[in-house]
C-alpha cells in the first residue's frame, strides 16, 4: 500500500532544550461545544502530561468559563479585551493561538491579528483551515498572522502544501504536527455479531453529506443483515440559531420517503470522549460523507482511525492523505454508486474490513494526544532556545 508523499516546509532543527515551558492557549474552550474547543482542551491536557503549566484565554461565547486553567476571556469586538488577552498570554513562556476564521471578532476574525501583535513571547499559531480560494481579506488576515507568528502549525501535508504554495508565508515558519486523538487502551471492535452499524458523528448541519448515506441505505437495506445508520451529534449551534433543525428534519423526511426510516436513527445526546469512543468501537464502519472538497483537517477522521474503525469518506484532502495506507476507502463526492459499493464491500467481506481496522490500529499510537503534544513541546523549546532572553 502506498503512503502519501512527504512534504515539509520547515527544516529548522531543535538546537537546545528548555525544560517544561509554560503555555498560554488562546481559542474556544469548554464549555463551548465545538471541535476547536475540544482540540484546545485535549492539547492542554497533553501538554500537562509532560509537566507543562498551561493556562487558557477563552474566546467568550456567553457561557461561563469552567476549569482552573481558564485565566480570562477574549470578548470579541472589544479593543480593551484584545489588549488584555495579549497581556494574559504574555504571562506564559509560549503562546499557542488557535486560528479559525469564524471564532474571533472583526471581519474574518481579524481581531486575532492584534492579539498576536501584542505578544512579547514566542507564538505558535495553529491553523485549522487553509482555503484554496480565500477572499482577498481572508488571505490578508492569514498572511498577517503568519508574518507575526514565530511558527505556524498545520495538521496535514495537504494543508502545508496549500499554505506554502498558495499564500505569501515564510516556509521556514511552517511545521506539520498531526491532529491528536484519544486512543483507547484496547483497539477492538465491541460490535455485536448481528446487525452492523454505520456511524457518522459530529455537529450536524448542511455540508455533512448525511443524505448520501441515507440514499445508499436503500440498496444496503436489502442485505441479509441490513445495517442500521446512526447519526450522532447535536445540530451546530450557529446552524441551530439560523435555521433551527431544518437539516435534521429534512434527513428524517428523506429516510421516511425512501422507506429506510426504521434503519436510520439520529442521536442528539451530548457525548463525552469516553462515550464517543464506545459508540465508535461498536460500529462496523465510520462514514464521513462530507460535501467539502477543502477540508485539510478533520478531528472526527482522526478519532475514527484512533478507535481502530475502518472509514469510508468522500474525497476531502485530509481523508485522501490519512486513508492512503489502507485504513479506509475514499470515494468521489458525486459518485453515489461508489459510496454504496464501498459500504457493501465492507459489510459483506469481513477480511477486507479487518485489514482496514488493522491498518487503523497501526496508525493510532502516533495520534495519541501526549505524542502530539510532545511535538508542540519540542517546537516551543526550539523557539525559546532561539530567544534565550525571554526564558
Automatic annotation (TrEMBL):
Residues 194-360 form the Glycosyl transferase family domain. Pfam families: Glyco_transf_4 (PF13439), Glycos_transf_1 (PF00534). Keywords: Glycosyltransferase, Transferase. The keyword Transport does not apply. SUPFAM superfamilies: UDP-Glycosyltransferase/glycogen phosphorylase (SSF53756). Residues 35-182 form the Glycosyltransferase subfamily 4-like N-terminal domain. GO terms for molecular function: glycosyltransferase activity. This is Glycosyltransferase. It comes from Mycolicibacterium hodleri. The lineage of its organism: Bacteria, Bacillati, Actinomycetota, Actinomycetes, Mycobacteriales.
Amino acid at each position: 500500500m502506498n503512503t502519501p508523499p512527504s512534504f515539509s516546509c520547515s527544516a529548522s532543527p531543535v538546537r537546545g532544550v528548555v525544560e517544561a515551558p509554560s503555555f498560554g492557549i488562546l481559542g474556544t474552550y469548554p464549555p463551548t461545544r465545538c471541535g476547536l474547543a475540544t482540540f484546545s482542551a485535549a492539547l492542554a491536557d497533553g501538554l500537562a502530561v509532560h509537566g507543562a503549566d498551561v493556562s487558557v484565554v477563552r474566546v467568550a461565547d456567553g457561557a461561563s468559563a469552567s476549569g482552573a486553567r481558564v485565566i480570562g476571556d477574549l470578548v470579541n469586538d472589544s479593543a480593551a479585551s484584545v489588549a488584555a488577552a495579549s497581556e494574559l498570554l504574555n504571562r506564559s513562556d509560549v503562546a499557542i493561538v488557535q486560528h479559525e476564521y469564524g471564532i474571533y471578532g472583526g471581519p474574518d476574525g481579524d481581531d486575532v491579528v492584534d492579539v498576536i501583535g501584542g505578544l512579547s513571547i514566542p507564538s505558535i499559531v495553529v491553523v485549522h483551515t487553509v482555503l484554496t480560494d480565500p477572499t482577498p481579506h481572508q488571505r490578508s488576515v492569514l498572511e498577517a498572522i503568519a508574518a507575526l507568528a514565530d511558527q505556524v502549525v498545520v495538521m496535514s501535508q495537504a494543508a502545508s502544501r496549500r499554505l506554502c504554495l498558495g499564500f505569501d508565508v515564510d516556509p521556514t515558519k511552517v511545521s506539520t504536527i498531526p491532529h491528536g486523538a484519544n486512543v483507547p487502551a484496547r483497539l477492538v471492535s465491541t460490535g455485536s455479531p448481528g446487525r452492523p452499524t454505520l456511524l457518522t458523528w459530529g455537529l450536524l448541519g448542511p455540508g455533512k453529506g448525511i443524505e448520501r448515506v441515507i440514499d445508499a441505505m436503500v440498496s444496503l437495506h436489502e442485505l441479509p443483515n441490513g445495517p442500521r445508520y446512526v447519526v450522532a451529534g447535536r445540530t451546530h449551534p450557529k446552524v441551530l440559531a439560523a435555521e433551527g433543525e431544518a437539516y435534521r428534519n429534512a434527513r428524517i423526511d428523506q429516510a421516511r420517503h425512501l422507506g429506510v426510516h426504521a434503519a436510520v436513527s439520529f442521536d442528539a445526546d451530548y457525548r463525552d470522549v469516553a462515550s464517543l469512543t464506545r459508540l465508535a468501537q461498536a460500529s462496523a464502519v465510520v462514514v464521513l460523507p462530507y460535501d467539502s472538497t477543502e477540508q485539510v483537517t478533520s478531528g472526527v477522521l482522526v478519532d475514527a482511525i484512533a478507535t481502530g474503525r475502518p472509514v469510508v469518506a468522500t474525497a476531502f484532502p485530509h481523508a485522501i492523505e490519512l486513508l492512503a495506507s489502507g485504513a479506509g476507502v475514499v470515494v468521489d463526492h458525486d459518485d453515489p454508486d461508489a459510496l454504496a459499493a464501498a459500504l457493501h464491500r465492507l459489510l459483506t467481506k469481513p477480511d477486507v474490513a479487518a485489514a482496514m481496522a488493522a491498518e487503523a490500529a497501526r496508525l493510532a499510537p502516533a495520534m495519541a494526544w501526549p505524542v502530539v503534544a510532545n511535538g508542540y513541546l519540542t517546537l516551543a523549546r526550539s523557539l525559546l532556545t532561539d530567544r534565550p532572553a525571554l526564558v
